[in-house]
Design a protein that fits this description.
The complex is a heterodimer of chains A (about 350) and B (about 400). Chain A is an all-alpha fold and about 350 residues long. Chain A has helices at about 15-45, 45-50, 65-75, 80-110, 120-135, 140-160, 170-180, 185-195, 205-230, 235-240, 245-255, 260-275, 275-280, 290-295, 305-325, 325-335, and strands spanning about 300, 300-305. In chain A, about 70% of the residues lie in helices and about 0% in strands. The relative contact order of chain A is 0.12. Classes of the chains: A mainly alpha (about 350), B mainly alpha (about 400).
Chain lengths: ~350, ~400
């Protein structure tokens, strides 16, 4: 058998150095895995065993019990299932929507040229502001939104064409990406009021919409760099042969950018799956997600470590499984920074 | 500005076409427009509008509403709440008034080291400004802008020194956030790069390591906070034997401000190193190995090869990943909140946490003011970073 630490090429490390690298990597794997192992053993402990100092190995140090698991899965039953389903629905649907919208925008920003006019942009912002001020002053939401759209449509013909100073693709991209700078706490409170007005408070639709908006900038950012690194020639020759944009996207762009899409999807999913602050503000009972449920275990009697461990474990299992299954896409899919500027 | 579309359309003076040519042109124009509408033209707008619209609605509105909120105070009366406009009182309170010790920190006269730092910064800034003034390549407007930038830099260093390098000074939420962000990025990047460098080698168990190293990223920050709360428990936590051996059994992280901050930074690093790692690994694996091979064959040392070949090649990725972490890092709240509740005192209170606490106590105005100051801070840091670091790097690459 070949020595696994043997040298394969000039750029490879010498065997002792390789062994050293292996040991360092093992150590970091331990640093990563030990807290998770601790979660696992804690989930099999009784409150008494947790309190009586550290026990490491089940059956040797302590007698494991399924109490915590039974408590979370059976006794709490629906109170665990509901937030779990909410997390799954909100996480998956918001990530898919954000990926669709963001990837489309990113592709458009790389392949088409836009010259939005300052006048039209100002008018759009003004119309949106009008709709919200009207809502705030007590007008019904749909009336306010409708009149906002109407004002925009009418004035766009008159005013929008006057101010023709144009901006370019990079301005749009910069604006979209810069929205990620917004701190969630600055967004959460106004959104609370907004969703209250339109009756979407404590509703997963509100969470989905908010997460899509919060994750769009990341998708645009990552996918724009990815699309920019793809060769243009293939698409150009297809266009010359008369294929429509949709056809080109479906048959050429989507297949070759699968790694990028998968990697971006995973990153966005992790953000939506684990988000805490916005969920805390926008939900109260029905639409609560798992991170809130985890935090809720820190009750008046102090943190319920055993229950918390179970919740964290069942929460991370699907994501970890997905990451393991899709791992080979991830490193090929992140080409961030490939774009200049 | 005043030019309109019609004047542009009228500009090219074409010869008047004859009848048949006109008909052909009209037909071509019609099919062209129709075709464009069905394929490219529609796609152009269909692809970008949903994203633009959603962001427009869901970010412009909170932005405007936050300004209004930050300029007002909630007044509770029977049967409802009233927002009363109070101008910049919230900001004034945070930056100059009662809340300053909480927000900026307790500012005292700097000690010797503090003065040394201030004087060194002042000298360096002045030298840089004089050099750019002498070079003659910078226009007067640019010089004025640079002067303002320099003074701003000096001002922020002055505040930092007053809080950190002085007797009796104490950093507030703003400075603590900066510490979390920059220390976090430093650790995460160093560790992430180190691990990625090791893992591009032909090493056994590569796939195992790659998957395992990703795991912390998938755990909710709230969960990571509680996990580290268990880890750092010196009497019941799994590291208890180590604490005992070190004679630290009765020691708690919570009592010392700097240790508490360190605990937060360790937790944050544990969670976010994988992100840096995976992106850098992707970058390293996509590098062309031949150049490096040639350099090594020609007798270059490993350090030289890294310094002159690998490092420049991954610089663009580095700047992007640092920018992402910079933007995300400023939002830190879960870890200090769960680990220590912002304590001891307010030693680990980040800006988002302070805003959250104000929101919880229904001081919505001040909460919005803090959030807005945070937004300004991140924007300034990100802009300066993009302007100075990123542009220079992309010019190099």
């Amino acid at each position: 058998m070949r020595n696994p630490f043997g040298r394969r090429s000039v750029t490879d490390l010498s065997p002792p150095a390789k062994l050293g690298a292996f040991v360092v990597l093992l150590f970091w794997a331990f640093v990563v895995l030990f807290p998770i192992y601790w979660l696992l053993v804690t989930s099999f402990k009784t409150p008494y065993q947790v309190d009586k100092g550290p026990f490491y190995v089940p059956f040797v140090d302590f007698q494991p019990t399924l109490d915590a698991w039974r408590y979370i899965l059976v006794e709490l039953g629906n109170d665990t299932l509901r937030p779990y389903l909410n997390t799954v629905i909100v996480g998956l649907s918001s990530s898919v929507i954000a990926l669709l919208m963001g990837a489309a925008a990113a592709y458009a920003l790389v392949r088409f040229t836009y010259r939005p006019r300052v006048g039209a942009i100002g008018l759009a912002i003004g119309s949106v502001a009008f709709a919200f001020i009207a809502t705030a002053l007590g007008a019904p939401f749909f009336l306010a939104a409708g009149s906002g759209v109407a004002i925009f449509a009418i004035l766009a013909q008159a005013i929008g064409r006057r101010f023709t100073r144009a901006m370019g693709n990079s301005d749009i991209a910069f604006w979209l990406i810069s929205q990620r700078i917004l701190p969630p706490i600055a967004v959460a409170v106004p959104l609370y009021v907004l969703y209250q007005q339109i009756g979407l408070l404590d509703n997963i639709v509100a969470l989905i919409v908010t997460y899509v908006a919060a994750n769009l900038p990341i998708v645009v950012w990552l996918m724009r760099d990815y699309f920019a690194s793809l060769p243009r020639e293939l698409e150009e020759s297809a266009a010359v042969d008369g294929a429509s944009v949709y056809r080109i996207v479906r048959s050429i762009v989507l297949p070759i950018s699968a790694p990028g899409l998968v990697a971006t999807f995973l990153i966005v999913l992790v953000f939506a799956w684990n988000e805490f602050l916005i969920a805390l503000v926008l939900t109260s009972a029905n639409a609560q997600t798992m991170p809130l449920q985890v935090a809720a275990q820190n009750a008046t009697r102090g943190p319920q470590w055993w229950a918390m461990s179970v919740l964290i474990l069942i929460m991370i299992t699907p994501v970890v499984a997905m990451a393991v299954a899709l791992e080979r896409f991830i490193t090929r899919g992140i080409l961030v920074g490939a774009l200049k500027g | 500005m005043a030019s309109s579309d019609s004047s542009i359309d009228a500009a090219p003076q074409e010869p008047v076409p004859s009848g048949s040519a006109l008909r052909v042109r009209a037909a071509r124009q019609a099919t062209g427009t129709l075709g464009a509408w069905r394929s490219d033209g529609a796609a152009r707008w269909l692809f970008i509008w949903p994203a633009v619209l959603l962001i427009l609605v869901l970010s412009i509105f909170p932005l405007v509403a936050s300004v209004a909120l930050s300029l007002s105070r909630l007044a509770f009366h029977q049967g409802g709440v009233d927002l009363k406009l109070i101008g910049f009182a919230n900001y004034q309170q945070l930056l100059f008034g009662l809340e300053r010790s909480h927000f900026l920190g307790v500012l005292r006269t700097p000690n010797l080291i503090g003065w040394a730092i201030v004087i060194a910064t002042a000298a360096l800034t002045a030298a840089a400004w004089i050099r750019s003034a002498r070079s003659g390549r910078v226009r007067p407007m640019g010089l004025i802008l640079r002067l303002i930038g320099g003074l701003l830099l000096l001002g922020s260093v002055w505040i930092l020194v007053q809080a950190l390098a002085s007797d009796g000074g104490r950093p507030g939420a703003l400075i603590v956030t900066l510490i979390f962000v920059f220390a976090g990025i430093l650790f995460q990047y160093t560790l992430g790069l180190g691990l990625a460098m090791l893992l591009v080698q032909q090493i056994p168990w590569r796939r195992f390591f790659r998957i395992v190293f990703l795991v912390p990223l998938t755990i909710t920050p709230v969960g990571v906070g509680y996990m580290f709360l268990m880890m750092t428990d010196t009497s019941k936590g799994p590291l208890e034997p180590i604490w005992v051996a070190l004679g630290l059994r009765n020691f708690t992280w919570v009592t010392d401000p700097w240790l508490a901050r360190l605990a937060v930074i360790i937790g944050d690093t544990w969670q976010w190193t994988p992100f840096v790692f995976i992106v850098l690994l992707a970058a390293l694996e996509s590098l062309d190995q031949e150049v490096r091979e040639a350099a090594l064959v020609d007798g270059a040392g490993r350090w030289q090869a890294f310094r002159h070949i690998t490092l420049p090649a991954i610089l663009p990725v580095t700047t992007t990943i640092v920018l992402i972490r910079l933007i995300e890092g400023f939002k830190i709240i879960d870890m200090p909140n769960i680990l220590l509740g912002g304590g001891p005192g307010t030693a680990t209170q980040s800006m988002t946490l302070q805003a959250y606490i104000d929101w919880n106590t229904l001081n919505l105005g001040r909460s919005a003011a803090i959030a807005y100051l945070l937004l300004i801070l991140v924007s300034v840091v990100a802009t300066v970073y993009v302007g100075f670091v990123r542009r220079r790097v992309t010019e190099l690459a």
